[in-house]
């Protein structure tokens, strides 16, 4: 018996379009059709005006690091084999912020405000997760 995975999301009806697009290496987020506000995480109601007129659109994939933490210890599978890694919140060019990992970046290279771009990482046969890497 294998250890449980703590890095896999729970996909529900509201987030399924996000994960489906990620499998195709596309980053999509929600926008309110009533007020025009883009937002992330996927949800059925606009956090600005409470409208349920929500649409999906493809984001540019460009972002900047808003905040981060370099993780040196994590005993949960599969993270123990990945330390050190960079857990971050990035601010998408469209405005919303997203929790993610920054990859292809040494811990001493990460800074707040670092320009990053989306990349995609296969977590298993079904789940592909958006991660971000520095713009070089």
Can I get a quick summary?
With 136 residues, the protein is mainly beta. It contains 1 helix and 8 strands, in the order αββββββββ.
What features would you describe in this structure?
This protein starts with 15 loop residues before the first helix and ends with a strand. A 5-stranded antiparallel sheet has the order 6-5-4-7-8. The chain has a 3-stranded antiparallel sheet with strand order 2-1-3. The model has no long low-confidence stretch (mean pLDDT 95). The longest helix has 8 residues, at 16-23. It has one domain: OB fold (Dihydrolipoamide Acetyltransferase, E2P). Strand 1 (28-32) and strand 2 form a beta hairpin. The relative contact order is 0.20. The chain is built from 1 helix and 8 strands, in the order H-E-E-E-E-E-E-E-E. The chain has 136 residues and is mainly beta. The chain has one helix spanning 16-23, and strands at residues 28-32, 38-39, 54-58, 62-71, 85-92, 97-102, 115-122, 128-134.
Whole-number total of structural domains: 1
Biggest β-sheet: count, sense, barrel? 5 strands, antiparallel
The 3D shape can be described as globular
The top-level CATH class is Mainly Beta
Oligomeric state of the chains in view: single chain
Tell me the fraction of residues in β-strands, as a range. 35-45%
Q: How much is the radius of gyration in Å?
A: 16 Å
What structural class do helix, strand and pairing data support? mainly beta
Number of strands: 8
Taking pLDDT < 50 over at least 5 consecutive residues as the criterion, the unreliable ranges are none
Question: Strand order, biggest sheet?
Answer: 6-5-4-7-8
Helix and strand succession? HEEEEEEEE
Fill in the CATH topology. Answer: OB fold (Dihydrolipoamide Acetyltransferase, E2P)
Number of helices: 1
Give the helix level as a range of percent.
under 10%
């Amino acid at each position: 018996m294998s250890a449980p995975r703590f890095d896999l999301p729970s996909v529900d009806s509201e987030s399924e379009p996000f994960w489906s697009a990620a499998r195709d290496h596309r980053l999509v987020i929600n926008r309110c059709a009533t007020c025009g506000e883009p937002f992330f995480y996927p949800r059925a109601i606009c956090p600005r005006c409470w409208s349920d007129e929500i649409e999906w659109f493809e984001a540019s994939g460009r972002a900047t690091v808003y905040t981060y933490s370099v993780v040196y210890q994590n005993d949960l599978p599969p993270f123990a084999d990945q330390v050190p890694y960079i857990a971050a919140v990035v601010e998408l060019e469209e405005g919303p912020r997203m929790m993610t990992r920054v990859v292809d970046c040494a811990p001493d290279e990460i800074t707040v405000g670092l320009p990053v771009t989306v990349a995609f990482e296969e977590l298993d046969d079904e789940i592909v997760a958006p991660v971000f890497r520095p713009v070089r």
